[in-house]
Amino acid sequence: MSDKIISLAADTVRRHGFGGPYDAAIVTGTGLGLVAGKLEDSISLAYSGIPGFPSPGVTGHGGTLHAGRLSGRQVLVFEGRSHAYESGNAAVMKVPLGVAKALGVPLLLLTNAAGSLMAQAGPGSLVAVADHINLSGLNPLIGETGDGRFVPLVGAYDSAARETLHEAARECGIPLHHGVYAWFSGPSFETPAEIRMAGRLGADLVGMSTVPEVILARFFGLRVAAISVVTNLAAGIGDGDPHHDETKRAAAAAAFDLARLIDAFVARL
Q1: Are 77 and 39 in contact (CB under 8 A)?
Q2: What is the rounded distance in angstroms from the CA atom of residue 253 to the CA atom of residue 246?
Q3: 3 state SS of 80
Q4: Rounded Cα–Cα distance for residues 122 and 230 (Å)
Q5: Full residue range of the structural domain in which residue 62 is found
Q6: Can you tell me the distance from the alpha carbon of 23 to that of 44, in angstroms, rounded to the nearest whole number?
């Protein structure tokens, strides 16, 4: 059934002028939709007008698909995402990413707001995600049939794309860390004990998104890069005591640097 919905959604966006080809697709996280406003010759369509697209229910997330030119490249921008914790459905972004695949997108760039376990990467820092740990107990491919569901995740975060991010950051004079992102289901924030556990398992960042989209993107054969915007120190790290208002404020403060980095990254594609 989802394949039919993806096909219907792709036909719908094509009728609204989303024809491609596109050099990349970008998913924006909490408070990080600034990049959509930088598109030239852009077109937009609300998620509510596209079959199978979710309705984001978290403040700081828009619900609009954009296309346009950024740094001389044609890109899709998914302004806002739905999270697994909103419905219990880890595959909530399957149709949007399936549409990206149907439109010929080769590379998906994900952004998110995250808590940091790294003293050197405090609020406002940008971090290129190098790998992830799924601590949620969920997987967006549960219920899929066929051998395609057994998606290998070695190199899920494309090393060449990550190096391009670092090159772009150096060009912009923006410090860019790298680290491992641990996915907790949310929506409650993590306890200090959970953060200690995540750190011992090798996590540098924690958040409530991104990992299911990475798995889905690899299922569809897309290359993946991801950037976390550190909005707070994780619970129990220093004076870390995260809450959503803090996340939105810190994301907004870092959004300008993120948009500059994305500009420079896209120009290098």
Answers
A1: yes
A2: 11
A3: coil
A4: 6
A5: 2-267
A6: 17
Q: Residue 139 corresponds to which amino acid?
A: N
**Look-up: residue for tokens 């005591």?**
241
C-alpha span between 92 and 140 (Å, rounded):
8
Which residues have CB under 8 Å from 182's CB, separation 6+?
132, 133, 135, 198, 201, 203, 205, 206, 207
Query: Is residue 45 a contact partner of residue 63, using CB atoms and an 8 Å limit?
Result: no
In CATH, what number is assigned to the domain containing residue 95? 3.40.50.1580
Estimate the crossing angle of helix 94-102 against helix 2-15, to 10 degrees. Answer: 60
- How do strand 223-233 and strand 126-134 relate by DSSP bridges? antiparallel
Q: How many domains does the chain have?
A: 1
Sequence-distant (≥ 6) Cβ neighbours of residue 67 within 8 angstroms: 17, 18, 22, 39, 42, 43, 74, 75, 76, 77
The string of pLDDT tens digits covering residues 164-201 is 999 999 999 999 999 999 999 999 999 999 999 999 99
Instruction: Give the bridge partners for 225, in sequence order.
Output: 109
Contact at 8 Å (CB) between 39 and 66? yes
Instruction: Let me know: does 127 contact 227? Beta carbons within 8 Å.
Output: yes
**Beta-sheet strands, E only, within the chain:** 24-28, 40-46, 64-70, 73-79, 107-116, 126-134, 176-183, 205-207, 223-233
pLDDT tens string 100-115: 999 999 999 999 999 9
Is 206:182 a contact under the CB 8 Å cutoff?
yes
Per residue in 34-46, pLDDT (tens digit) is 788 889 999 999 9
